[in-house]
Amino acid sequence: MLKHHSRRVKTFILGTAISTCFLLPLPQQSSAQDESYKVAEGDTLSITVYGDAGLSGAFPVGPGGTIGYPILGNIPVEGHTLDEISDQINTGLKPHIPNLSAAVAIKEYAPVFIMGDVQKPGKFEFRPGMIALELFALGGGLREPTVQTDTSGVQLINVQQEYEDLTLQLLSLDVKRVRLEAEFNDKPFDYPITNQGALRDPATLQSIVDSERNLYQQRLTVMQSDRTNLQDQRQNFAEEIDMLNKSTDLRNQQFDLLKLDVDASQGLVTRGAASESVLRERKRELLQMNQQLLEFGSYLARAKQSKNEVERRLQDLDSKRKGDAVTELRQVNLDMLRIRKKMEYNVQVMAEISAAARRVTDRSKIIQTEFSVVRLTDGQYEETTIDEHTQVQPGDLIRVRLVGPDPTITVGSAK
Fold first, then answer.
1. In Å, how far are 18, 134, 217, 385, 399 from 139, measured between CA atoms?
2. Is pTM beyond 0.70 here?
């Protein structure tokens, strides 16, 4: 609606200006124009003297309304027609150079200017018969309402696009939040596709959910694989510990038997029924068995320590998963809060832009275009209100303003 009205205002104003220019009478031949045109300050005259090229050339009309001409000096030309100036030069030259004829034409008209609420203020070439509306059209028509309206429309589109991007980010974070909560609670991941909020494309939501589901499954698979490996290690250590315990029990029995043999040998030696060498051999076997028991005790202690480490890692596996999920959840909730704040701000901005656009639209319905001309009169510049059909004179400065019902208020400067 905003862009449509902008085009309507622009089409009406510029169309009126341009079509009016096209309906103007076609310029007459220069000879006919020159007969009635009165020379103005800022014009440049082309004077051709047949028979003497030294007296021919281009002569600008200075601030005093005169031209500096050879032999004759300063000649007043402002306000005179070209024929009158030609007669004046012929009359002045006749006493000095007989049988010469001078022809005067306009080489370049003084420029005209337009300023104010137009697209292209500046200097333009004057054409006889030009009216204010034609110069207004050359200046590109109105500036302020169209520019403000178009800018509001572009700003609104940009903010709306940013709002949709934030909506997508918020939705992505929400899906991630559900996935992290599932990991923390050791529950299956499930996100309802119907919970799409302001997102326009359900396929986008499905893509986000599928991505988070794949990530959930990958992390669950890795964790289950690590748990299986640790459980296998724990089982292996448990079996090793059991084997070492059984082996230790057997060796303790052997140690007890060897100790009995040593005691028996000691008694035989005391009674002289056995030699000392037999006793020493039994003691040596007892020491070896004791050493083996100590080594097996060391093996058993290391196996138990390794089994305890595996059990600790199994416990850490679950706690680490939940700890990581809690840490990420904290950041996700913070990011979601920030995005919601940004979205609230964007809603306010969109409302303000829409309100500003409506104000411009309402203003454009009641504005009027006012023309005035700044013109040098009797040595002083005066500004006079004119209408769009007023004839423009060389050197004129046309000012365009947009005014509302109160002519003292310039619409173009309203906020």
1. 11, 9, 67, 19, 11
2. no
